[in-house]
C-alpha cells in the first residue's frame, strides 16, 4: 500500500482498536506500524491482535511492522489507610520499607533498590511529577524527605528518581515472559522501557536471539547522558517524552528531542517521537493547533515515525487521529522548507562502499529526472543507509526476506516490495523496473536508480549502481522470457 509521505505512523492498539474492521481501517487511514502495549491486555488478547494484523497484511499485500512495548520495572508507593492524603509544601514525609498502610507523614516504598541508590538532596517524584520530594536523609530502608511541591498522593502512584542511576534491571520477570511470548508470536520490533545504560540491552538481545529488532526508549536523564552508547547498542530509538518530561524540566525536552533525532539519522537507525502528540483527540475529533504543530515539528526534524498512544488505543476517534497525522505529514512534506531542512541537516557519511553507493544514488536522483531509488536489501541495511540520505524521490526496498520488509515499515521513506531471490544483476534490474511500474512509482520511459550487492544474497555487499529506463523494450532485452 503506497503512502504519499515519507514519515511513518505508529498506532497503539487497545480496547477500542482490537477488531478486524478497526485495525484494517487504521492501516488504510495511514498506520504503518502497530504497537502492542504489553502493560495492558492478556497474552490471549495480544495474540488475537497480532493474528488480525497478519491477516490484514496478507489480504492487502502490504508489509506491516508490529512493535511490542515491554512494561519495564514499575516503581510505585504502597497503599494509604484513607486511600489518599494531601501533602503540603514544606512538610516532612517519610518513605520506608514498612508495609503498614500510609498516612500524611509516611508511606511504604517497597523498592529497596531505590534506597540503596538515594543520597541527600536527591529528588523523588510521585504521580507523574505532580508531587516533588527532596531527600533530607536516607538509609538502606528509609528516606526522610521534605515536600517541595505538594498535592494529593494516593494508592500505588508511580515514583520517578531522576537524579540517580538505579540498580534495577531493565527487564522484570513479567518483561522476560512477555518478551518470549512476543518473539514467539513473530513481532518485528521490541521496545525496552527504563533503559539507563547500554548494558541494559544485553539481556534483551540475548533473549530475543535475533527474532526481533531492539528499540530503546529514552525516558531517563541517565539515558540521555549515555545516549551515544545506547544508540550504538540499539537497532532503533523511541523518544518517550512522557517520563522524560517528568524526570527533566519540561523545557529541556524539545532540544533533547531535536538532538536525538539528528543523531539517529546520522547513525541510519530509525527513531520514533512519541507521547501526547494528539492527546486531545482521545475525546475530541479535532486536535489543538499546538498538537498539530508538535507533530509537524517532529516531521520537520526528520523523525522516521510519529506515534499515537491512547489516541488510537482507547480514544473516541482513533481513525480521525491517524488521518490527522497522515494529513499533517503530507502537508509538511510538500512544504519547500521541509526539503531545505532535510538537505541542510544531511551529515556526509563516506566510510564504506555502501555509503558511497547510496549517496551517489541520491545525488543522481536529484540532478536528473529519476522517479525512484530501488535498493535490493537482505538485512535492511542498504535501505536504512538510503533513508539516511532523505532523498527527494521514493525509496523502493526490494527484499526476499519477509522479516526485513516488516522491520523497514518503521523506516523513513521506505516502500517495501517482496522479491524472490536473485542470482544475477540483470534479473534484479528487470524485477525493479517491473515493481516501479506496477506500484505506480514510474511510467513507461521514466528512469529509476537501482542499487544492489554482487554477489547476491549476502548482507552488507552493496557495491553496484545502475540507471535503468522503465520500458518493456528494456525488460524484453534483458529477460526475453
What does the model show?
The longest helix has 18 residues, at 43-60. With 481 residues, this protein is α/β, with parallel strands linked by helices. The model has no long low-confidence stretch (mean pLDDT 94). It has 3 domains: 8-72 and 170-333, Alpha-Beta Barrel (TIM Barrel); 84-160, M1 Pyruvate Kinase, Domain 3 (Beta Barrel), CATH 2.40.33.10; 353-478, Pyruvate kinase, C-terminal domain (Pyruvate Kinase, Chain: A, domain 1). α1 runs parallel beside α12 and α10 packs across α12 (318-333). It contains 18 helices and 21 strands. The relative contact order is 0.11. The protein has an 8-stranded parallel β-barrel with strand order 1-2-3-12-13-14-15-16, surrounded by 9 helices.
In short:
By secondary structure, this protein is of the alpha/beta class.
Radius of gyration, CA atoms, in whole angstroms: 24 Å
Distance between the termini: 29 Å
> Into how many domains do the coordinates divide?
3
Oligomer: single chain
Principal-axes shape call = elongated
**How much helicity do the residues have?**
25-40%
Keywords:
single chain; 481 residues; alpha/beta; TIM Barrel; M1 Pyruvate Kinase, Domain 3; 3 domains
Layout of helices and strands:
Layout lengths: L7 E6 L6 H10 L3 E5 L5 H18 L4 E5 L14 E4 L4 E5 L9 E3 L3 H6 L5 E4 L4 E9 L2 E8 L1 E4 L4 E2 L12 H13 L3 E4 L7 H9 L4 E6 L2 H5 L1 H7 L2 E5 H7 L5 H14 L4 E4 L14 H12 L4 E4 L1 H4 L4 H16 L2 H9 L8 H15 L2 E7 L4 H8 L6 E5 L2 H6 L6 E5 L6 H14 L7 E8 L8 E9 L1 H7 L3
Amino acid at each position: 500500500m503506497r503512502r504519499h509521505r515519507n514519515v511513518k505512523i505508529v498506532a497503539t492498539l487497545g480496547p477500542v482498536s482490537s477488531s478486524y474492521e478497526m485495525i484494517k481501517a487504521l492501516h488504510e487511514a495511514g498506520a504503518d506500524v502497530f504497537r502492542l502495549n504489553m502493560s495492558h491486555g492478556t497474552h490471549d488478547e495480544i495474540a488475537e491482535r497480532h493474528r488480525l494484523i497478519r491477516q490484514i497484511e496478507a489480504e492487502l499485500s502490504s508489509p506491516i511492522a508490529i512493535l511490542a512495548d515491554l512494561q519495564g520495572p514499575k516503581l510505585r508507593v504502597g497503599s494509604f489507610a484513607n486511600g489518599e492524603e494531601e501533602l503540603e509544601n514544606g512538610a516532612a514525609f517519610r518513605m520506608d520499607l514498612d508495609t503498614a498502610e500510609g498516612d500524611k507523614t509516611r508511606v511504604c516504598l517497597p523498592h529497596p533498590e531505590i534506597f540503596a541508590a538515594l543520597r541527600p538532596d536527591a529528588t523523588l517524584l510521585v504521580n507523574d511529577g505532580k508531587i516533588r520530594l527532596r531527600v533530607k536523609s536516607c538509609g538502606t530502608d528509609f528516606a526522610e524527605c521534605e515536600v517541595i511541591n505538594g498535592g494529593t498522593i494516593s494508592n500505588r502512584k508511580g515514583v520517578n528518581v531522576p537524579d540517580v542511576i538505579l540498580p534495577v534491571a531493565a527487564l522484570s520477570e513479567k518483561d522476560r515472559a512477555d518478551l518470549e511470548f512476543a518473539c514467539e508470536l513473530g513481532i518485528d520490533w521490541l521496545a525496552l522501557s527504563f533503559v539507563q545504560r547500554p548494558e541494559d540491552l544485553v539481556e534483551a538481545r540475548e533473549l530475543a536471539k535475533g527474532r526481533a529488532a531492539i528499540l530503546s526508549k529514552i525516558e531517563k536523564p541517565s539515558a540521555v547522558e549515555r545516549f551515544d552508547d545506547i544508540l550504538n547498542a540499539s537497532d532503533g530509538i523511541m523518544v518517550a517524552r512522557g517520563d522524560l518530561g517528568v524526570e527533566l524540566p519540561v523545557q529541556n525536552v524539545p532540544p533533547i528531542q531535536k538532538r536525538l533525532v539528528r543523531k539517529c539519522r546520522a547513525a541510519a537507525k530509525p527513531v520514533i517521537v512519541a507521547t501526547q502528540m494528539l492527546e486531545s483527540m482521545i475525546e475530541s475529533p479535532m486536535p489543538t493547533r499546538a498538537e498539530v504543530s508538535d507533530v509537524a515539528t517532529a516531521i520537520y526534524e526528520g523523525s522516521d515515525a510519529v506515534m499515537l498512544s491512547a489516541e488510537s488505543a482507547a480514544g473516541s476517534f482513533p481513525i480521525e487521529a491517524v488521518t490527522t497525522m497522515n494529513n499533517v505529514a503530507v502537508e509538511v512534506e510538500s512544504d519547500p522548507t521541509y526539503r531545505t531542512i532535510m538537505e541542510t541537516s544531511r551529515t556526509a557519511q563516506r566510510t564504506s562502499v555502501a555509503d558511497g553507493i547510496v549517496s551517489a544514488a541520491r545525488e543522481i536522483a536529484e540532478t536528473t529526472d529519476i522517479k525512484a531509488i530501488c535498493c535490493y536489501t537482505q538485512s535492511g541495511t542498504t535501505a536504512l543507509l538510503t533513508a539516511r540520505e532523505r532523498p527527494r524521490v521514493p525509496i523502493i526496498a526490494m527484499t526476499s526476506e519477509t522479516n526485513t520488509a516488516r522491520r523497514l515499515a518503521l523506516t523513513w521513506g521506505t516502500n517495501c516490495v517482496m522479491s524472490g531471490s536473485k542470482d544475477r544483476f540483470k534479473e534484479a534490474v528487470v524485477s525493479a523496473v517491473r515493481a516501479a511500474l506496477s506500484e505506480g512509482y514510474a511510467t513507461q520511459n521514466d528512469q529509476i536508480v537501482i542499487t544492489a550487492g554482487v554477489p547476491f544474497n549476502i548482507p552488507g555487499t552493496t557495491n553496484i549502481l545502475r540507471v535503468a529506463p522503465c520500458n518493456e523494450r528494456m525488460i524484453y532485452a534483458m529477460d526475453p522470457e
